[in-house]
Amino acid sequence: MGNAVCIGAQWGDEGKGRIVDRLSERADVVVRFHGGNNAGHTVVVDGATTILHIVPSGVLHPGKLCVIGAGCVVDPEVLLQEMEMLATRKLLPDPKRLVIADEAHVILPFHKRIDKAREQQRGAGKLGTTGRGIGPAYEDKAARRGMRMHDIIDRARVPEIIRASAMYANSMLEAVGAEALRGDEIEEMIARTRAHGEKLKPFVDDAGALVADAAAAGKNILFEGAQGALLDLDHGTYPYVTSSNCVAGHASVGVGVGPQLLGRIVGVAKAYATRVGEGPFPTELADPLGTQLRDRGGEYGATTGRPRRCGWLDLVALRYATRLNGITDLALTKLDVLAGFGDLQVCVAYEIEGRRVDRFPHDVAMLARATPVFETFPGFGEVPDRPRSLDDLPAAARSYALTIAERLGVRLSILAAGPGRGQEIVLEDPLA
Ligand code: GDP
Ligand code: IMO
Ligand code: MG
What atom in ligand 1 is closest to the CA of residue 14? Predict the structure, then answer.
């Protein structure tokens, strides 16, 4: 019995959704602690694919309490759509199953407009954001003019907050040469936001207190991260990052409970590397092998549909993620995708200006100059569809997975060899 944090150890899309779905079997509460609908977490059950953007990935297990924590930014329109999709499948809405933190911030339509307008203005220097308004919403939060969930459910407060922040939004839109919000648009936004608030009201509560009470009552809490360590606002490849902290330590802040509740730290990593959006990616394969990885791995964004950039596994980056998060357990996904590739390369260090570098550089200009120092691992053929134990895997596949965990100094707890629920070997359940 215990708690765990599940976080991405690379640039996002590591397969957190499917690992959270698996770990939810033993969890009572599953809570998202940061980010918004920039996330796209895929869960495949009996061949049916569900992509969750803001509702925690534990929702496909009936009876679990799903919580959207204080550190999240919530687009009410997207959340309501997701709730509707889940309702048609009899999974939601049930206020007893979904709680939205009253402290979580609201993504408003102008946040999306600013996000997109800025990207357009940046041109070739764009960040490659998801365009979901994440950065501008977190900016308003830090500037202390944001709207929180307890505001959106209060009819009287909505106009005042929207009018004040629309004024700032217009100055930003004008600065990037985009169309400012017209008065009638602002009034329509007020009406729409009030309607959203009314629908969401039954779900808004003191999420931190509920999670803390559940933990005190001996329930198992699973904290679900979004994005990945290298997209973390402080520690990622700044400025090519998201606008929130993605690392495990933030789970306590983003929920409103003490760090002693976090439990084991499950780092999810793909058996290779991908990145979507701009920014340096030292092991990127901008060649037919990269295209083959993308095709085999179905590497297209779960949120935007953009093709993901693909490359070899980067142990420099993974060692950094292990340290940043305090990873105790590795969940390695997509091992099946590497089957049939021939010899596999793994980056064990970088070479920068003729020097061998073992640490992940913080300066993206330096990271962009890094060339990988590769170690060759023997490739392997077919990986069984539903391996039951490591013994079911080809020896080279088993050795690849175990060596990665060993090099990171963590235990290999989960190994996934297919997208579906059950296509993973759980060597040790971190919540057991
Ligand atoms: P997340 O954002 O970390 O939850 O990951 P995404 O859902 O964005 O991307 C992971 C993709 O890989 C999804 O399409 C998953 O269905 C798929 N996937 C996850 N684990 C595996 C695996 O072990 N093998 C294969 N082939 N696909 C997987
Ligand atoms: P999940 O949870 C992969 C990337 C974007 C862009 C950068 C900033 O599914 O792993 P943002 O819209 O957040 O301001 O974009 O971060 N990004 C992700 N990449 N997976 C994600 O989420 C991502 N969320 C944001 O592509 O490079
Ligand atoms: Mg994703």
Answer: 3
pLDDT tens digits, one per residue of 372-430 = 999 999 999 999 999 999 999 999 999 999 999 999 999 999 999 999 999 999 999 99
- For the domain covering 4-102+204-264, report its CATH number: 3.40.440.10
What is the C-alpha to C-alpha distance for residues 340 and 173, in angstroms, rounded to an integer? 50
Neighbours of ion ligand 3 (CB under 5 A): 13, 40, 302
Q: Is 13 known to be catalytic?
A: yes
Residue located nearest, by CA, to atom 20 of ligand 2: 12
Q: Where in the chain is the domain with CATH 3.40.440.10?
A: 4-102+204-264
Cβ count near 323 (within 10 Å): 16
Please tell me the distance from the alpha carbon of residue 285 to that of residue 296, in angstroms, as a whole number.
14
Most ligand 2 atoms within 8 A of CB, residue of 132, 231, 278 to mutate: 231
Phi, psi of 169 (to 5 degrees): -60, -40
The CATH architecture that domain 268-426 belongs to is Alpha-Beta Complex (3.90)
